[in-house]
Design a protein that fits this description.
10 helices, elongated, alpha+beta
Length: about 375
């Protein structure tokens, strides 16, 4: 069963890569740029077919993918008569759209996955069904029993127990009329919540423990919440990236120093795949909960990758976007001085910087790979 989860993660990851590259492809085509290749994977070509001027296919190493746009630098040779279709000479606004389209679709995919989770699969939520009555509580005095389903409080229908908790707390100790369903019969119970210490805070409580069930949101609510959660995840991704340099020494110690692996620390693709496998194989959750957790993992991964790709460093998309923005700043100052627009920056001039970044990313990837193998993060602790 764990293998099924790992395979599902790999498939989801490759689909995410395809969506990212499709963003580049469709916008480049929209601006009449020439796209010659669209491949999943790297290395030896396993299968491909040509449609128009673009070759689509799969390569042997499933470690990403790429969309090859002609004329990325002035040194790229364009076919005679197609010089105007080079990426290099396009307006900066078009470059930014093409470069940012991959990350944009990661965010769209994250929103869609969260929407499916909230509106289709559902999320764990406290129901209005009483699982346990706390001894010596207001609920005992009122006559609550296990299995009672609280239908209303003071005449207000309760469909979400969070609302029920709000009504109990806001009553400030006043008696409340509860309508409950018990064995198919409607029963009215009057209870006076008691002020109780809950985690160091005094709160009015009824004294019941409710069952956990699956709750599906309405389409509009799910759509709104999906966007809000995506924004929250994006903010957390930015914070995580800002703290990345401080976490690398910790990861080194956890990998080679025998320290306990931090579940909230850095994790690589292998680690996420392992967690996905454990999620699908978990016997502590039903299938709805397993699928929901898996969707949450894939959604958060897409949002993180979308943010990561926007970092203003080459060879990431964000690095190329930073170059395009720098071009516009240079052009702006040239206009102020009455001078012609300067030639676009050739990213090949920045090759030494790009090479350093690539080496650092490869080193971090290898460190994460080793850490995920010899000291993996596990859902089971």
């Amino acid at each position: 069963m764990e293998i099924l989860g790992i395979v599902a993660f790999v498939v989801a990851l490759l689909l995410s890569v395809m969506v990212h590259e499709f963003g580049h492809y469709i916008t480049a085509r929209r601006f009449n740029m020439k796209v010659t290749e669209f491949f999943l994977g790297f290395g030896k070509r396993l299968w491909s077919y040509r449609k128009g001027e673009t070759e689509f296919g799969i390569k042997a190493i499933p470690a990403g993918g790429y969309c090859k746009i002609s004329g990325m630098t002035p040194d790229d040779q364009m076919d005679p008569g197609e010089e105007s279709r080079a990426f290099y000479i396009a307006r900066s606004s078009k470059k930014l759209i093409v470069l940012g389209a991959g990350s944009f679709l990661h965010f769209v995919l994250g929103i869609l996955l969260l929407f499916v989770l909230l509106a289709g699969v559902g999320v764990n939520s406290l129901t209005s069904v009483v699982k346990e009555v706390v001894p010596e509580s207001a609920a005992v005095v009122a006559g609550f029993q296990q299995g009672d389903e609280i239908k209303s409080i003071n005449g207000e229908e309760i469909s979400d127990w969070a609302r029920g908790v709000d009504l109990i707390r806001s009553a400030d100790g006043a008696a409340l009329l509860f309508t409950v369903e018990r064995d198919g019969q409607i029963v009215e119970l009057r209870a006076t919540p008691r002020l109780t210490d809950v985690g160091g805070e005094e709160r009015y409580v009824l004294g019941v423990v409710n069952e956990i069930g699956t709750k599906r949101l309405g389409v509009l609510t799910a759509g709104k919440d999906s966007i809000v959660i995506t924004a929250d995840m994006a903010v957390q991704s930015v914070k995580s990236l800002a703290l990345l340099p401080t976490k690398i020494p910790q990861l080194w110690g956890q990998t080679f120093g025998g320290e306990t692996r931090d579940a909230n620390g850095l994790v690589g693709v292998v680690g996420v795949a392992r967690v996905s496998g454990e999620t699908i194989a978990s016997g502590d959750q039903n299938w709805s909960q397993r699928i929901g957790t898996f969707l949450l993992i894939i959604a958060s991964l897409n949002i993180f990758v979308g943010i990561f790709n926007l970092l203003p460093i080459l060879p990431l998309d964000g690095g190329h976007m930073a170059v395009a923005i720098a071009d516009e700043i240079r052009a702006f100052f040239a206009r102020l001085r009455g001078r012609p627009r300067p030639a676009a920056i050739n990213v090949q001039v920045l090759t030494p910087i790009t090479a350093v970044v690539v080496v650092v990313l490869i080193a971090l990837t290898l460190l994460l790979l080793v850490a995920d193998i010899i000291n993996p993060i596990s859902l089971n602790g």
